[in-house]
Amino acid sequence: MPRFRVNGVELAYEVQGRGFPLVFSHSLLLDRRNFSHQMAELAKQYQTIGIDTHGHGESTSPATDLTLDAITDDFLKLLDQFRYARFVFVGLSMGGMIGLRLALKAPRYLKGLILIDTSGDAENSGRKYQYEALIQAAQEVGITPELADMVMPFMFSERFLREQQKLAREYKERLTKLQLAGVLKVAQAVIDRPSILDQLSQISVPTLILVGAQDNTQPTDESEKIRSRISQSKLVQVPDAGHISSVEQPEFVTKQISQFMQELGIN
Questions:
Q1: 132 lies in which domain range?
Q2: Is there a contact between 50 and 38 (Cβ–Cβ < 8 Å)?
Q3: d(CA 22, CA 257)
Q4: Which of 110, 118, 125, 243 sits between 20 and 30 A of 208, alpha carbons compared?
């Protein structure tokens, strides 16, 4: 797995296919496999690049505290090595938060932006309290199977947990194997993020916003806040999906990305 060293961290990434580049950025607590279906299918026509965020997947853990802006800056340095003139960025949850900041920092690189189950606002105070309690528990006892059971409903819909039990067990097991110290630093950066809603009107790149119809972590009204502020944006609900809609409805999400690429004139 290739790695790029930046600011004391080695960021792992996976490249598939050839053609116009599609960059994928995953959710907190997951890794580039968040987009396994999308990357494999779209690599038949484009080049797909999946990045493991700091402390996730095969990337190493940061030694110091982080912010989402610092993570975005490191992503930009990684992407600079490819010397892409432009690319389309696809981000889910935390990945979408990175995508919004990338669009503000370096719009010249973006041909299009795809935001999935994400937010441009600060964390909801009620959810922030819950997340900080989970972080405290993880610091004290690690991510035990019992703690993973508490996290899973934030990620997936009740229907998925009920009907896709084998796959749900695989994701639960991944949670228990996370690089705890690095992941918690990134988690803190996510829940402490400031709102950037007042800046989103500066984004003029064509933007597709997807949100799971059963996403209770970043529900549809969070996506609507983004849609109403980015002039060239459209919002599409992903049916029968919770927060990690790329996993719950992989074909639907892949089709939406493919259609958006065609709308951008990228075939």
A1: 3-263
A2: no
A3: 10
A4: 125
CATH code of the domain containing 72: 3.40.50.1820
> pLDDT per residue over 161-198, tens digit each?
999 999 999 999 999 999 998 999 999 999 999 999 99
CA distance 118 to 228: 14
Query: Total structural domains in the chain?
Result: 1
172: which 2 tokens? 């639960």
**Cβ proximity of 207 and 230 under 8 Å:** yes
List the Cα angle 98/104/105 in 5-degree steps. Answer: 85
Cα-trace Rg, the chain = 17
d(CA 179, CA 29): 9
The owner of tokens 């947990």 is 161
State both tokens at 181.
């110290």
